[in-house]
Amino acid sequence: MTNSDSSEIDSLDWLEAGEVVVAELSGAGASLVATDRRVVIVRERAEFRSRNGVRSWDYARIAHVSLSPPMRGQAVIVIRTGPYPWQAVTMFFDSRMRAEAARVIGQIRKRL
After folding, report:
1. Complete domains list, the chain, with CATH
2. Spatial distance between the Cα atoms of 90 and 24, rounded to a whole number of angstroms
3. Model confidence over 64-97: pLDDT tens digits?
4. Distance between CA atoms of 29 and 46, rounded to whole angstroms?
5. What number of other Cβ atoms are within 10 A of residue 7's Cβ?
6. Is 2 exposed, middle or buried (0-12, 13-18, 19+ CB in 10 A)?
7. Pick from 34, 6, 25, 10: nearest CA to 74
C-alpha cells in the first residue's frame, strides 16, 4: 500500500519530524503503519475519532507481535504491550494479504 492509494491514511500529519514509514498494511477498517520509531494503527475515518482514530506504541512498549492463522478469509495481527489479555491490540486483515502482513511483522520485530 502506498499513501496515494490508501483511503484510510489520507495524510501522514501524525508523523513526527524525521520519522520514516518502513511498512504499511491495510486491514478491515484500519491500517497498520510501522515507522522507524513506533507502530501506528490508523482507524477508518480517524479524523472523526479524536481519542482512538490514531493510536501508537513506541517499540520499547511492545512485548510481542504475532500473526494468527487465517480463518474464514481473515487473519489477525496481535500486538502485545504486556502479559495480560487486555494489554493487546488486534488488527484484522484479508488473509490474501498474509505475505505482506508477515513482512510488516518482520519490520516490527527487527526493532523490538
Report:
1. 3-110 (2.30.29.30)
2. 15
3. 999 998 899 999 999 999 999 899 999 999 999 9
4. 10
5. 10
6. exposed
7. 25
The tens digit of pLDDT for each residue in 17-38 reads 999 999 999 988 889 999 999 9
Compute the distance between CA of residue 103 and CA of residue 31 in angstroms, rounded to an integer.
14
Closest by CA position to 70, among listed 41, 97, 45: 97
Mean residue pLDDT across the chain: 85
**The overall pTM is greater than 0.85:** no
Cα angle 17, 19, 22; round to 5: 160
Residue 84, helix vs strand vs coil = coil
Reference 67, options 87, 31, 49, 93; nearest CA is: 93
